[in-house]
Amino acid sequence: MDRRRFLLSMSALALPLPALAATGNDTSLPRLLTASWDEAEPLAGLVDGKRIALPGRGHGIVPVPGTTEAFIVSRRLGRWLARVDWRQGQLLQRIDAEFDRHFFGHAILSPDGKTLLTTENNDETSQGMIGRYDARTLQRIDELPTFGIGPHELLWLEPGKILAVANGGILTLPETGRTKLNRGQMLPSLVLLEWPSGKLLSEHVLDDKALSIRHLARCRDGTLGIALQAEYPEAAAHRNAPLLATLRDGVFRLAEQPEALMGYGASIAAAGDEFLVSAMRGNRLARWRSNGTPLPALAVPRPAGIASDGRQAWISSEAGGLYGYTPETAALFELSGLPARRWDNHLVLLR
Amino acid sequence: MKRLTLSATFVLAGLLSHAHAEPQVPDAAWATGWLDAGYLPRHAALATAADALASASDTLCAHPDKASLEKTRTAWLQTSLAWRSLDGASGGPMVLERLGRKIDFRPTRPADIEASLDASAAERRDNAATRGLAAAEYLLWGDAEPAAQLKRLRDPARCQALQAISNQIASDVHALDAGWQSYRAQLGGESDFFRQNLLSEHINLMITALEGLQKRLPKDEAPKAANYIEWRSGSSKTQLLAQIDGFGNAFFAKPGPATRLDSALAGKMQERFAVARQQCSTLPDRLETSGAGSHSARKACGKAIAALKTTLQDEVAVELDLTLGFTEGDGD
């Protein structure tokens, strides 16, 4: 569905489009990095800059502070990790996954910028791992367990000391590609690891094991927001499946939410004291206060990545659009004049 | 133990999903009929070919001459093609037992294989990179240097490694003989919980196989030979076609998924399959050395496979009311 048809359909349903026509918002475009894809051409780069051809579909992007470089991680069952120069539009370096390992699409830099950490799978045992690489050379240093299956996004809770890992709980293996092998017995968990020892500090699980714990963001009050993706056998069950869990004051719980978000949180970010989750299949930007109180979701066609500077957010759409969002006014506005590509699930702000 | 972990989870996925029964659960006759028509013959063909490879390798090591090497190469090719056919639509015990990991671990790791020549058979078995078809292909062809291999295989340690690998492939395949029969009995049993996820699991695996086919075609305009998976043996095109045919054997088996579809959709799948088969048949026989000359044919082949896959995941899965796993179109 293109954006025009989507907006018309929303109008027909009399659903709120609170601020698509809002005025007075900062419509200037910051520097945003993301991957995009179609069957023939996986790309990455600045949304309005030079395109970088990738060996396959890219997913998570980690800018290298103070440089024009970034790391791009291949998507689940990923075989490659790349370093790119986003200003030049060049792929500078590519490494393949270690023997009997594959990437899960996300990485994070250590606070000193010297080490790159990636989520990986041990293809022999199916256990989740964190690969440690020298960020300068991409030489692999070692690995540590994530105490779970299918680790996805990583986030520092205390830079250099406590690392949060979203163990998605879904088993995939190289010989069966992206087929989910343990539906019905998923083991998702949020774990906090002491760094650099990798010691397990705490593990948090939900009662509903069909909710895959995938993406992480932290509000300025310290609350950790966790975007979920439901994996029920029946498609209809996804309609009102929870999209957000929070870890606040040591309590891990699901947040209430509006109806029909359709159970797939593509990404999460925090802006102001809000958590924003892209409800891609529900065509909404879902919003909550950091205490888990739901706010009205805003209509966005196939929202994908969300980037935030802490005060304002930017949202990409798989349907090709890019939007800005201001929490103070709940204003959502489309950024015009940009190339319309099929944006991947993550959008990164360069500071 | 590691193997049991996967077996348990995969089987339990079926057990626990039982509580969410979908209306289109196949009956026992249909389920076993599909296995009989679409899966067991491909397993039997692989078992036969693997036995022949083991036998040919034994002969080669006993009489390392040009003729026995060629016979072994032919047997390897038949085994690999039979495997590609089975992998074109996998399922049941071959997934639980991770047969793909055991007999087709990629990418090939020549350094590991060379280092394993003096290792014990047990050590070689423990390393996925030093067993299976990829390791055997390397020993038979080297790095696409077929003429140099007879001399190298006259080294008893090297030939014995090939012999052990070939026999292990046969052993790994035959280890599933009972598994397939057990799976058949489960599908035909009174309780329907093994039939609950039959279509969902197998169609998901078919989608995965079609995605795998697309990845067999390098996107570069002029790829190097080594960008193709079976570049050492120069068999990339036939391997690709074997995998397409394996998909077709399972999907269009009678009974099979196509027989559960509306006739228009079944016809569309048949047409898309035929187009994919035809487009991919136009690839150069020596695909690995075709360079830029195969670019348009590769694009056409990939596009036809993509169209087949799109119909399978967007239309067939919907009509059969199946929940799909991660598709290529999904994020993550």
In CATH's first tier, which class of chain A applies? Mainly Beta
Largest interface: A-B, 42 and 49 residues
CATH A-level architecture of the largest domain in chain B:
Up-down Bundle
- Pattern of helices and strands of chain B: HHHHHHHHHHHHHHHH
CATH overall fold name of chain A: Methylamine Dehydrogenase, Chain H
Structural class of chain A: mainly beta
Overview of the structural elements:
The complex is a heterodimer of chains A (about 350) and B (about 325). Chain A is mainly beta and about 350 residues long. Chain A has one domain: YVTN repeat-like/Quinoprotein amine dehydrogenase (Methylamine Dehydrogenase, Chain H, 7 Propeller). Chain A contains 1 helix and 28 strands. Chain A has one helix at about 5-10, and strands at about 30-35, 45, 50-55, 60-65, 70-75, 80-85, 90-95, 100-110, 115-120, 130-135, 140-145, 150-160, 160-165, 190-195, 200-205, 210-220, 225-230, 245-250, 250-255, 265-270, 275-280, 285-290, 295-300, 305-310, 315, 320-325, 330-335, 345-350. In chain A, the strands form 7 sheets. In chain A, strands 3-2-1-28 form a 4-stranded antiparallel β-sheet, with no helix packed on it. In chain A, a hairpin with a 2-residue loop joins strand 18 and strand 19 (about 250-255). Residues about 1-25 of chain A have low confidence and may be disordered. By secondary structure, chain B is mainly alpha-helical. Chain B folds into 2 domains: about 25-180, Up-down Bundle (A middle domain of Talin 1), CATH 1.20.1420.20; about 195-320. Chain B has 16 helices and no strands. Chain B has helices at about 1-15, 30-60, 65-85, 95, 100-105, 110-115, 120-125, 130-140, 150-155, 155-175, 175-185, 195, 200-215, 235-250, 265-280, 295-320. In chain B, helix 2 packs antiparallel against helix 14 (about 235-250). The radius of gyration of chain B is 20 Å and the shape is globular. Chains A and B meet through loops of A and helix 1, helix 5, helix 13 and helix 16 of B.
